[in-house]
Amino acid sequence: MDMRRIVLELIEKVLESQNSLNPDENLVDQGLDSIKTIQFIVQLEEKIGITIADDDLLMENFDRIEKIISLIDKNLVK
Question: What sign results for the dihedral spanned by CA atoms 45, 12, 31, 20?
Fold first, then answer.
């Protein structure tokens, strides 16, 4: 399972992006807000079968693709 690809696909879906997402840029600058972040988290948890810990549900943990992947790795270990 290519986690980076899954994350990118889900983010693009939530952002309803017509253009390709730049994975190196801040996602908030590309339109990710708190509501869309929650939508993304729900879809992510369903897709890969994890539950993100409440302590990790901070907007700052979801502003970059690499941070999201690190968070997923952390929650997969639990």
Answer: positive
Interhelix angle 65-77/3-15, nearest 10 degrees: 120
CA 36-39-41 angle, to 5 degrees, is: 110
Instruction: Tell me if residue 24 falls in helix, strand or coil.
Output: coil
Q: Write the CB contacts of 46 (distance below 8 Å, at least 6 apart in sequence).
A: none
Q: Model confidence over 45-54: pLDDT tens digits?
A: 999 999 999 9
Question: pLDDT digit string (tens) for 60-76?
Answer: 999 999 999 999 999 88
* Per CATH, domain 3-77 is 3.30.470.20: no
Q: Domain residue spans in the chain?
A: 3-77
Please report the pLDDT score of residue 73 as a whole number: 92
